[in-house]
Hints:
By secondary structure, the protein is mostly helical. It has helices spanning 2-9, 11-36, 56-66, 76-106, 121-124, 126-145, 158-166, 169-196, 202-231; strands spanning 44-45, 53-54. The chain has a two-stranded antiparallel sheet with strand order 1-2. Helix 2 packs across helix 8 and helix 6 (126-145) crosses helix 8 (169-196). It is globular and about 65 Å long. 21% of the residues are buried.
Amino acid sequence: MTWFGNFYRSAIGKKAVMAVTGVILFGFVLIHMLGNLKVYFPKHESAKDPTVMVWPLNEYGAFLREVGAPLVPHESLLWVARLILLAAVVLHIWAAYQVTMMSRAARPIAYHGRQFVEASYASRTMRWGGVILLLFIIYHILHFTTGQAHPDFIHGDPYHNFVVGFRVWWVSAFYILANLALGLHLYHGVWSMFNSLGLNHPKFNAWKRTFATAFAVIITVGNVSFPLAVLIGIVR
């Protein structure tokens, strides 16, 4: 424990925490986007009742709530996953804040002029992008999970909540802005994650950049497509 405490107090330890929690959050972002792609699938007959037509997105939502049953109580594994994600978000933000404070303490006098030679635009905007994402996460939970920020929330009907929610243009605009910030955050975050985990070698740098770019673009395009699809009438 003493070794772990000393390791965490170092900048390298904090960056390692950011990397590990980043892996959890990157995995969630990917699975979340893939699950939401079901909104593009048409209605079909329910496996439980062939006389009833159901949206695949609603079936997916029901699966998430029922997974593990009857071995475990209804929605219990879903809440376990939510708590793990919440812990990952808190640790990620706290470690990032501490790294920032350590960096400022190491140089209390600011630069008179800064020239960004190696730093990318994504790396220079990580902090304000992180603030936007934090606000987005809070709103997203209130909007699609608990329903307090939704104009007509129906529990157990994700498709309805999805369509009605994105019909509000400023809500869709906020989601698009937040996902553009997420794309920049993912690009730099994936790149930094590899470095923090020790995968930093000229032989790997080319594929690391390709993977980080592809991952960020796929997630951003997929997520931005959802509000746009509702606004232009593809999804109704």
